[in-house]
Design goal:
Layout: H1 3-20, H2 24-31, H3 35-43, H4 52-62, H5 66-71, E1 90-94, E2 97-101, E3 112-118, E4 135-142, E5 145-149, E6 152-156, E7 161-165, E8 170-174, E9 180-186
Antiparallel strand pairs: 1-2, 2-3, 3-9, 4-7, 4-9, 5-6, 5-8
Helix pairs in contact: 1-3, 2-3
Length: about 190
Amino acid sequence: MKEETSLEIGCRLKGLRDALDISVEDMAQLCEITPEEYLHMEEGTGSGYLHVSNLQKIARKYGISVDELLFGEEPHMNSYFITRKGKGQVVERRKEYKYQSLASGFSGRKADPFIVVIDPKPEDHPVSMSSHANQEFDMVMEGCLEITIGTKVLTLNEGDSIYFDSTQSHHLRALDNKPVTMLAIIF
């Protein structure tokens, strides 16, 4: 995640916590991380913990939209929302993942669709597993994707898709030293 974006999201997290009088410990517990790791999120130095899934947990728990945390804007559309090619709100979740929101302006949505670009990393690069509530759908549009769910390692090629229980630990990795572009829908 870009440093300025991390700082802005961290500031919004701190503002939410202060406004609702939520303890650091409660926020950390919700995100399933330590209070120190949560404070790194608020300081904009914890991009390793600043996952869309953690932001979803916070948003759902406190009745706000993920967009308010990610972009500082509340969505306004409630009958439809168009995202033109290449024009969605961009969020860099981690250095190797770049997210483009496809429904950031739609209020009350039941899922968060993204175009995700995963940059390749060396095989010896540390793997960071993540998990989040509910389910996820991923469809590879370009490239070759390795997805690890628990201990199962799967390979998806262009046009392949997977729907899975995202409460299970999982990790995505680009193969063949080429970026992967995929559609991800997080429920």
